[in-house]
Amino acid sequence: MKQDFVEDVISWFNKNGRNYPWRETDSPYRVLVAEVMLQKTSASQVICVYNDFIDKYPGPQELSEGKVKVIKNMIKPLGLHKTRSERLKELGESLVNDFSGEVPQTKEELLKLPGVGEYVSSAVLCMAFEKEELMADANFGRVIGRLINRRSATHPYDDIIGELRGSVQIEDFRRFNLGVIDLGALICRPENPKCNKCPLNEHCSCT
């Protein structure tokens, strides 16, 4: 794996990356809420409710005091709204009761929060706290897996992440992560990938 592929990803992202409000904030709470909403849900669905949700529940205290019924109605367009509304309510309560109203800054503590797994914890650490975390979702795993001609059989793509960290240096983890994720969503799709438009053509084992 060549080092310059990292710069190719970031350069492509700077010109073609998708814009979402949760990518334009350094608020750990806002990033966390967005990532919980994005689980099994497209960004286009989340964008329909995210801003209004943050306006109504601007912090953990307000979310902890929210009524599940009201939360459920607000996030109905996301689907799974009953389970998701209860999880968001529990998330607010946990932040207030267990972490003094602050989003924790370690993976160990983040994983104690309702609805937070490996990917969400990595996303919050990278996006909100500028930690050197790789955000390995399905898009990320597919792009890097195709790049090195390896399909990960495990989640969260430990073998792919291990090889990536051992092969290249990444200075801007945030832009690199988002670049790989957006490449997976827009170019390196599961079916009919747009290989002729991919900035990683010269590096990829699939071309």
Task: Describe the protein.
It is built from twelve helices and no strands. By secondary structure, it is mostly helical. It has two domains: 4-18 and 133-197, Endonuclease Iii, domain 2; 21-129, Endonuclease III, domain 1. The model has no long low-confidence stretch (mean pLDDT 91).
Structural descriptors:
mainly alpha, Endonuclease Iii, domain 2, 2 domains, 207 residues
What is the fold's blueprint, element by element?
Elements: H1 4-16, H2 28-38, H3 43-46, H4 50-56, H5 60-65, H6 68-74, H7 81-99, H8 107-110, H9 118-129, H10 138-147, H11 158-167, H12 173-186
Number of domains: 2
- CATH topology group of the largest domain: Endonuclease III, domain 1
Q: Which CATH architecture of the largest domain is right?
A: Orthogonal Bundle
Termini separation: 15 Å
Summarize the main sheet: none
String of helices and strands: HHHHHHHHHHHH
The radius of gyration over CA amounts to 18 Å
Strand segment count: 0
Please give a quick description of this structure.
The chain is mainly alpha-helical and 207 residues long.
